[in-house]
Every structure is written in structure tokens, then in C-alpha cells.
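Request from the bench team (R.T.):
"We need a structural guess for the complex before ordering more zinc ion. Sequence and SMILES attached. Just send the C-alpha cells back."

Command: build protein-zinc ion structure.
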Amino acid sequence: MGKDAKEKDEGQKPFDSTRDPAWAQRVDTWDWLSRDEETKAKEGPCPRCNHQISVLETQVVGARLLTLGVATPGPAKRYAACNCGVKHPETPDGEIGCGANGLINRAEDR
Ligand SMILES: [Zn+2]
Ligand SMILES: [Zn+2]
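Reply to R.T.: structure attached below.
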């Protein structure tokens, strides 16, 4: 038989960094878990490529804003992107993941 084309990245989505609100909405449904006192993280399957990804958030940034006397927390959203580590077709040099990205809600200290 010929070559094993099926073992290659067949079905693997090509890199696409178009911002996708639906992607961010799915990531927003994952729970933030505390890694340590200052770091929160969430993990789950990327809604676009289904590979495992993780998002980290450090709380120090917010604390610093408070000491500066900033009353409003500013935009509640932050940028996040797929970092699955799987090589997708057409991934530019230096990029990682499938390119999916969006603005997700920040981890909140309750
Ligand atoms: Zn992926
Ligand atoms: Zn992905």
C-alpha cells in the first residue's frame, strides 16, 4: 500500500488566530483553581482543537493596581489563547496551539 497518510495530522485544524467569542465563552465555563497564593489556573480541552490547554493568572497584578489607587478594576476581561503544544498545520514560527483566542473573564478572589 501507499503511505500512511492517516497517521499524519489528518483532521487537525490549521492554525487560525481569528478571535472567537464562542471560544472564550467555553473557556469561561471552566473553574479557576488555585495553584498557589498568587496564581490561579484553569485547564480543559481547547474548544476549537480539543487538545488540553491551560490558562494562568497571577493575582499580583490586581494587587498592584489597588496600591496605585485605581478605583475601578478596568476591563474585566483578559486575553487568552490556545497553547495546546500540538503542532497544527500552517502554524507560524514562534506561535503555539491552534491559534484560537478570545477575551475571557478574569479569575476573581472571592
Ligand atoms: Zn491543538
Ligand atoms: Zn486549540
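Two things stood out. Residues 14-105 form one domain. Helices lie at 21-28, 60-67.
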